[in-house]
């Protein structure tokens, strides 16, 4: 009788340990996603200032500005938990920002402008922060996914509604391509 009770207590403690590990992994992934979201919001807030600075020098490039604003708004409209949708929208926004900076290359006065230089440096810093946040999120998502899929954790995870997280990945092959540099 005592042996049976001891086995039941040991199994219950093991289930609690697995459950708590799954909760911790899920919270780490959600906290990591929050970090990405904060950095993406900072970038979205910086874009209007950048556009206004460039507009003064290249007002005839209206389509480029409109595209950046449209893609910024589109990225902001992606639902909170849609990791793949957000990754795709942010990738397109990154491409449009690249076009904006390429446009700035054609205007030496703009490149020399202090505000533009500061905004460009801020955006570069933000892109580095976003990259670090993505890596952290993908690591947290990987840890959760391993726990959710591993035996015997998968038995507990299925019973308590734990599910895998999507990775924040580059979905556009053009973003993966090595840029060509011509002098």
Explain this structure:
With 183 residues, the protein is mainly alpha-helical. The chain contains seven helices and no strands. It has a single domain (19-174), classed as LemA-like domain (de novo design (two linked rop proteins)), CATH 1.20.1440. Helix content is 80%, strand content 0%.
Residue share in β-strands: under 5%
| Residue share in helix | over 70%
Compute the separation of the termini in Å: 83 Å
The CATH architecture designation is: Up-down Bundle
- Count of alpha/pi helices: 7
- Taken from the alpha-carbon principal axes, the silhouette is rod-shaped
The computed structural class is mainly alpha
Query: Could you give the count of β-strands?
Result: 0
Q: How are the elements arranged and paired?
A:
Blueprint: H1 2-55, H2 62-77, H3 83-105, H4 108-112, H5 114-149, H6 153-160, H7 173-176
Keywords:
single chain, 183 residues, mainly alpha, de novo design (two linked rop proteins), rod-shaped, disordered C terminus
In brief, what are we looking at here?
InterPro entries: LemA-like_dom_sf, MamQ_LemA. By secondary structure, the protein is mostly helical. It is about 80% helix and about 0% strand.
